[in-house]
Amino acid sequence: MIELENGVKYVGLSDRRITLFENVYPIARGMSYNAYVICDKKTALLDAVDSVLADRFVDEVKEALNGRKLDYIVIHHTEPDHLSSLGRIAEIYPDSVIVGNVKTFAEMEKFFPNISNERKIVADGDCLNLGTHNLKFIFAPMVHWPEVMVSIDLSDGTFYSADAFGTFGALGGNIYADEFDFFAEIDEARRYYSNIVGKYGAMVNNLLKKVSAYEIKRICPLHGAIHRETTIARFIDYYAKWANLEPETEGIVIAYGSIYGHTAAACEYLAQELAKRYKNVKVYDVSAVHSSFIISEIFKYGKLVIASPTYNANIFPPVLALVEDISALAIKNRRVAVIENGTWLPSAASKIKSILANNKDFEIVETITLLKGDGKKELAALAAKF
Ligand code: FEO
């Protein structure tokens, strides 16, 4: 438990044993699940943690309450990485009132049909007054589930932002972003945003617009560091770029699959040609690098080359997974070149372009088929055309 200010206490925990967040995304540095206790005239627990940490979480909450009863449990988001320890908390504090919206309780009942605590249903814009602290709820559907709501403490400008402004990675004792070099680790924040929330940029924009009406002095997300005055504006700038799919800086991502090394060789040559003209030419073998890292890079840079051998008359499976991810996340506003390879029936390019046909403002700059020879002439021409 870490004391913040004015009776607000951090009761989140980090899991350093987890290796895959959502059993999909590699997280070499673990994951934090943030939760907060407010001790005022009334007491409130804001959110919970993953159930693997439930025992320690109960201890943290008890320590924060320091013998007081728990009046409210506020649920901003029902996804199990936060909610799955709710059953334990509700069992220990059966007299606490659970605060959520209509959709919160619809989701909660699926996971915990037997929780019988009293409920307080809030509407968009409602407040929960705890004494001095006064939480105003703002609905944030699809950031990142339909029931998500955030809250702003009108007494001190704290923005409890749910998954928004979260990051991958466990926290050390420094829980404020200004206590370590947060922006040196921005890649992990972007990887979290792009893969977890990236599909819902329009909803993130709506949320940013709504909260811009308030003077935000602290952002308390459900994952990762807490932000104060010196880091808030810069992090919001990143978020605005990501939500609008605006590249952060000049650069080109080359994502290739290669079975016997020929497509790899072509892409290495292309990278050398591109590097004569552009900074930040980033080359990834999709068989070696998890797609979540490549997706993050595609959010960062404005240009993309996808190269694939033909495999079973289709796209090479690791490339197919990446292309489907790009489609599913509705990434837009990118210049793209497609390279296909294949000795007897190259057909990956048309399938790649077909999958990406609905990505808005995806400009296919060039399509190259590598059939015989080293393709250097075509690749050099592509580099010039990009
Ligand atoms: Fe951290 Fe959408 O849950």
Structural description of this entry:
- By secondary structure, the chain is an alpha/beta fold.
- The chain contains twelve helices and 22 strands.
- The protein has helices spanning 54-65, 80-83, 86-92, 102-111, 186-197, 201-211, 229-243, 262-275, 291-300, 317-328, 348-355, 376-385, and strands spanning 2-3, 8-10, 13-15, 20-21, 25-26, 31-33, 36-39, 43-46, 72-74, 97-100, 119-121, 127-129, 134-139, 149-153, 158-162, 218-221, 252-256, 281-285, 303-311, 314-315, 334-341, 362-370.
- A seven-stranded mixed β-sheet has the order 1-2-7-8-9-10-11. Strands 17, 18, 19, 20, 21 and 22 form a six-stranded mixed β-sheet that branches.
- Strand 12 (127-129) and strand 13 (134-139) form a beta hairpin.
- Helix 6 (201-211) packs antiparallel against helix 7 (229-243).
- The longest helix is centred in the middle third of the chain and has 15 residues, at 229-243.
- The radius of gyration is 24 Å and the shape is elongated.
- The model has no long low-confidence stretch (mean pLDDT 96).
- It binds MU-OXO-diiron.
In short:
With 386 residues, this protein is α/β, with parallel strands linked by helices.
Largest sheet: 7 strands, mixed
Distance between the termini: 53 Å
The average pLDDT value, as a whole number, equals: 96
Structural class: alpha/beta
CA-atom Rg in angstroms: 24 Å
* Unique ligands: MU-OXO-diiron
Number of strands: 22
Q: If helices are DSSP runs of H or I spanning 4 or more residues, what is the number of helices? A: 12
Q: Residue ranges: pLDDT <50 for 5 or more in a row?
A: none
Tell me the strand percentage band: 15-25%
What gross morphology would you assign? elongated
